[in-house]
Amino acid sequence: MSIKKRIMSILVILTLLLLILSGGLSAYLYQKAIMEKVTAGYGILKTAEKFIDPEKYMTLVEKQDPKNPYYLEIGKTFQEIVDANDILYIYSESLNKDGNTIYVLDTVTDVADATLGDVVNETEVMDTKELLETLSKGTNNYSIDKTKEYGTILSCYTPIKSDDGKVIGVLSLDLKMKEVIKDAVRSIMKVVGIILLLCIFMSVFMYYILDKHISKPILQFAGNLEVITKGDFSNSLPKSLCEGKSEIAKLAKAFERMRLYICELITNIRAEADTIRNAIEQVNLETDKLNYEIKGAADITNQLAGGMENTSYSAQSIEHASNEIAEVARNIAMRSQEGVEHSTNITERARETQRGVENSILEANKIRTEINAQLSEAFSRIEVLDKISVLSEAIMSITSQTNLLALNASIEAARAGESGRGFAVVANEIGTLANQSQKNVLEIQEVLEEVYTATKFLTDSARFSLSFIENEVFKDYNKLSDVAMNYNNDAAFVNELVSDFSATSEELLASIENILNAISQVTEASEEGTAGTKNIVDRNKTIILNSNNVTKEMSTVINSINALLEHTSKFRV
Question: What CATH number does the domain containing 500 carry?
Answer without folding.
Answer: 1.10.287
